[in-house]
Structures are given as C-alpha cells and as structure tokens.
Amino acid sequence: MAEFISLYSGSSGNSSVVRCGQRYLIVDMGKGVRTTSAALKALGLAVSDCDGILVTHEHSDHVKGLSTFLKKNTLPVYGAAATLDFLDSNGIVPASCELHELEGREEDVGAFGVQSFPTSHDVPCVGYRIHTPDGKTMTIATDLGMLTPPVHEALSGCDLVALESNYDLHMLRSGPYPYYLRARIESTRGHLSNDECSAKLLELIQEGCKKFALCHLSQENNTPALALQTVFNTLGAAGVVPEKDCIVQAQRRNEMSPVLEF
C-alpha cells in the first residue's frame, strides 16, 4: 500500500512524503529543519530509508529547510536543471550534495519511478508523477497558473492526485493584496484557483481517479472549508457524491494532514 502524506502545505511552506513500505521520497522542504524532522519522526520515518528529495522550484516556501537538513543528512536532491543550478549557486545545498537532473522521461529514484513535467509559474517549476514499487501512480502539481497539456497528461490515469487549490477568486479580488500581486496570482504564471482545481478534479473523477489532496491553499485568499465547498459544489452539480464516489482532502497549513492511502 502506497501513501501520500502532506507534512505541511500552504504559502508559508510545503513538504510532503510519498511512502511505499519502508522506502519513501520527500517532495520539497519549505519550513525549518525542526518542523520537518519532527514530522518525519512522528511518522516513524528514518532518514536512511529516504531515497531522495524532489524539489519543484526555488521559491523559499519550497526550499527554506533544505540547507540545514542536508548538512545533517546525506540525501540526493532531484529537480530541473535551472532549479538545481539555483540551489547550488546560492549555497542552499552543500557542495557535497548529489544533484540529479530530472527532465521529462521517467527516471529511477531509489525504489520509485519519477517523471518531472513543467508547470506554468514565474520561475522554472515542475511537478512530479511518481510510480511506487507496488505499481501505484500519483501526481503532485502545485504552483501553476494554468493547466497546460503536459500537466493534463501527468494528471491522467493516477490513483491519487495532489493538486493546487490556492485561492478563491472573490477573496483575492476583495482582499488586502495590492493590484500587482493579485495580478501575479491570477496570471497564467501564478497559481490555480479553487474553481480551476474543482473543474479538473471532476474531469479526473470521470476518468476514474478517486483520491485527491488539495494543496498550497493561501492563508489570505482561501480557507480549507471554502476550497472543499467549491469542489463539492462542482461535483454535486455533476451527480458525484464525495465520500461515496471519491475522497477529497484539504491539506493542513502548519501540521501533518491525515494519511491518504492509494
């Protein structure tokens, strides 16, 4: 049985684990080493059982904890070439750290098969489609302003999808953010809204996927209840019954979310 576990998820920091048996991968590390290490310890995960860290992009809410963590723990880091160059040139990873470029085709990362795909963000950014040792497939895609063909392809045919549901459009437009920041978030190189996420989830459910994690919710422009309600409204209008036909879980900002088995 494979598991997806969000250690924390939101604009203040993101990190998750994909586990199968004793082996696991970490995706991003956007909070301090104490927070991440405490979460791994609570799950009973030894660093020696980790096959590597996948990094989606260079923004601090995805890499803040890497530097200190990697000084204490020797693990390989995987990502797009531009992201790895940024981490190396800015001293975010130790000089001794093994850096492995993932660009397009599926690669073996320990016991897992991992394929990166580009997402539309304001810095080079990728998502990951992960095949577990027991033959399951999940995709994580956050920090994307639009659902491009590579993203649609990566989300298709999965047992679990972790997809960004960053903001409610009304909250964003009526909130305190200055115009330039609102425009950035809404742009095709910004973030995905609740409405956009919900529409994609319905499409994926109709294709057969049953388990979903809503990720990277904005603290200022969204709430877990609102993100879930938007999804449930979209699904309900199409005759899909949550809990019966699918499981949709909003991921918690500052603590671990319940384990999602897939």
Automatic annotation (TrEMBL):
Molecular function as annotated in GO: hydrolase activity
Limits of the Metallo-beta-lactamase domain: 12-191
Transmembrane segments: none
The protein's name: MBL fold metallo-hydrolase
Organism field: Faecalibacterium langellae
